[in-house]
From TrEMBL:
Catalytic activities: a ubiquinone + NADH + 5 H(+)(in) = a ubiquinol + NAD(+) + 4 H(+)(out)
Top-level class of the enzyme under EC nomenclature: translocase
Enzyme Commission number: 7.1.1.2
Entry annotated with the keyword Transit peptide: yes
Record's protein name: NADH dehydrogenase [ubiquinone] flavoprotein 1, mitochondrial
GO molecular function: 4 iron, 4 sulfur cluster binding; FMN binding; metal ion binding; NAD binding; NADH dehydrogenase (ubiquinone) activity
Named cofactor requirement(s): [4Fe-4S] cluster; FMN
Domain NADH-ubiquinone oxidoreductase 51kDa subunit iron-sulphur binding: 363-408
Keyword Transcription carried by entry: no
Amino acid sequence: KTISVFETRLQLPRSPSSLLSLHKLLYKTKFGPLSDQDRIFTNLYGRHDWSLKGALRRGDWYKTKEILLKGTDWILNEVKVSGLRGRGGAGFPTGMKWGFMNKPSDGRPKYLVVNADEGEPGTCKDREIMRHDPHKLVEGCLVAGRAMGAHAAYIYIRGEFYNESSNTQVAINEAYAAGLIGKNACGSGYDFDVFVMRGAGAYICGEETALIESLEGKQGKPRLKPPFPADIGVFGCPTTVANVETVAVAPAICRRGGAWFASFGRERNAGTKLFNISGHVNTPCTVEEEMSIPLRELIDRHAGGVRGGWDNLLGVIPGGSSTPIIPRSVCDDVMMDFDDLVRAESALGTAAVIVMDKSTDVIRAIARLVEFYKHESCGQCTPCREGVDWMDKMMWRFVRGDAANSEIDMIWELSKQIEGHTICALGDGAAWPVQVRLLGDGAAWPVQVRLLGDRAAWPVQVRLLGDGVVWPVQVRLLGDGAA
């Protein structure tokens, strides 16, 4: 009757179909490709009408009233059974997070805040939902709000997303006009309002407490935790901050059952997921696939393979710029889910797959990422404000070939002084690209090798990514100019 998933005891449905779905989850060995009838986002590419009329034809808002009438506990249990984990990067169990709001009321209103401030380099999944399937998000706000007892949702949209915010606002207006939200939403007797808030382009406002500060009209700087937003959030009230994709899949989970959603992927890594594939691939795309699909199959099936063939692959950033690069030797077998990428010393993050072939200057790429984090730092924490600036200067010296050998160990130590010593995770995101190990034997840091060979390389002979390619003997050694 119960099964332990994500350290939570869950009440499982008793229907044979639900038990069959769970049996498949526990004993599956092959993951993907996802069949069309199992896709949640059916207008991802904007080929159909995104307005209310088109959304109703695709099954949105179907039996939403029944879902609301089943109440908070039923919705929370379905989400817990589904195994849904946050799709914004952290991967925290969604049912548990939403359950933190399900406490006796102390008189303060509760709020749902949707984090649509998508600014992670390489990530472009949430904007596709807001642009082409906004009613899924609006309906998801209603269902998620009901689960946590909130009566209002704020959708905080990145400032650059003009079309996305426009479409979302139109969808909200249509839902109000149809009686789907507002007073007596869907005829359920539950009142629920949805508001759009435009950001101003700051990457740091993607951090939940900085987002709350911005929503309140203050500078977007992260807060110290505790207190957590579930206790003191926006306007001093209990708040849950959730990602766009996380919220948008909630109605489908409630309609089709948590066990149906849990039948995809592995235990602790269940469901479907939106993946962005960019970089050196033949057909960059955004695609919905089953969790735990092998990385190589994902790239070959949906992105037309690596430019120049799989043997031309150098490495992959698997989850947006905040996640460490994984080398070709790992890419052959790794699965795209939370646990397997942690095993590979990286992370799923936002599932933004950035592919790099052997023409990539990895040192320049890392320097560019560090420069981004330096520019987007809010400056509140000294390790991030000062340390990332120093890392940026040192990385560009490595790019130019002007650095001393001693700076290799120095920048590693500097990154360790930043990691884990800041209020939010921006400092960690800046430090991780610098710490990545690309060589197949794990013995050297990438700055020790100029992968393009235009100025300097050290040591003289090195095996790149374990593929047997030996660096040419004619190199310019760092610092002494000898060939």
